[in-house]
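Hi V.,

You were right to ask for the full record rather than a summary. Here it is.
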Amino acid sequence: MAYPHYLAGLELRGRRVVVVGGGSVAQRRLPNLIASGADVHVIAIDPTPTVESEVAVTVHRRAYADGDLDGAWYAMACTNDPDVNAAVVAEAERSRIFCVRADDAKQGTAVTPASGVHRDLQFGVLAGGDHRRSGAVRAAITEALADGTSLKIDDDRKHAAGVALVGGGPGDADLITVRGRKLLAEADVVVADRLAPVALLEELRPQVEIIDAAKVPYGRAMRQEQINEILVDRARAGKFVVRLKGGDPYVYGRGFEELQACVDAGVPVVVVPGISSPIAGPELAGIPVTHRGVTHEVVIVSGHVGPDHPDSLTNWEALAQMRGTIVIMMAVKRIDEFATALLAGGRPGDTPVAFIENASRPDQRLLRTDLAHAGQTAVDQQLIAPAIAVIGPVAGFTDADRALGF
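Predicted structure:
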C-alpha cells in the first residue's frame, strides 16, 4: 500500500525555522516549534498580540520577500494570501527546504501531523489530508493514553452550542484538567488568552476558529466588552465556544464577567476550574505558600495598580502587619512600590521574597531576595512578565529546591 507522506521526526534545536504569517495558524504552530528548541523567525505584516509578544521567537513586522528562507532548515507558509504562500513554497523548493503550506497542504513539500504528547511519548497522525479525521484520531489517542482506556474514535462528534470558561492552569499543557482538555477538543471556536497553555492549540482540528484575546502587559489588548460579545455572538450562531484562560477563570481572569454576559444573553455557559497560578507557581518553584508552624494565612493580591492609585482596593498597611504569605500577581512593573508600601507599614526589610517567572514553562526562572532589595533585584535581573512575587518566610525555603526535577 502506498502512503502519500513519509513520517519523520525533525531535530530542529538551534536551527533556523521561518514562519511566514502571524495569524491564528502561525499561533497554533509556534508552541511546538519553540518546545523543539528551534531558532524561530516569524515574518508577518500584522502578527497577533500573542505572536508578537512571544519572547522565544524573533518577529519581523514586514511583508515576505524572496530570500527570507536563507539559512532555514524548515519553513511554514501561513498567510491568508495564496500568492504569498505559493511564493514561499517556490523559494523553499529552489533551496531544498521542506515547507508546509497551511492553506493548501498538497501544494507544500511537508505536512504538519495532528500531534500529541503523553509524558515522554510524542505521536503524530496523518490521514491523507482529512484534517477532521486526523484530529479525531489524535484526540482519541490522547484520551486513551490519559485514562488507560481503549481507542474510541468519533470523527463527527458535535458539542451543543454554548460557552465553556476553561482554566488552563499556569502554562504547561499537561496541567489543564481532564475535563478542560476534553471540552477543548470539541470546540468550534477557541477564544484564547496569551497566558493560556497555547501548546494545546496545536491539537485542535484545522477548522476550529481561534481568536486571540491576548492582553499584553502595557501593550495591545482586546477589550473585555469585545470578548464578551464574541462569546455570545458565536454561541448564538450555533457554535460551541471555549474561552481558554491561564490559571483559573475566577482568579483575576474576569471569568465571572464573562459568565454574567452569557447569562444575560441567555447563552448556556459552564465553568471549568483551573489550577491557579498564585498557588501552583510557587509550588512548582519549590515554595509552599503555607507551612505548619510558619504561616496561617495566604493573601493573593493584584498588582495591576499601585498602592497609591485611586482604584486600588488593597489595604497595604494591613498587609504589612500580617505574618503570613503575600502572593502578588501582575507585579513586575510596580514591585518597588509594593515593597515600599509594605516596609512603610512595618514589614521587616529582611523578609524573604521570591520571584517566579514563567511558572511551569521550560524557561521558568526563580529569583530570591529580600523585601528591602526586591525592587532593585527585579531591575538588575530584568524580571519580565508573567511573574509571581511571593513575600513571607516561606519564600526563603530552599529544602524543596534540591527535590525539583524528579
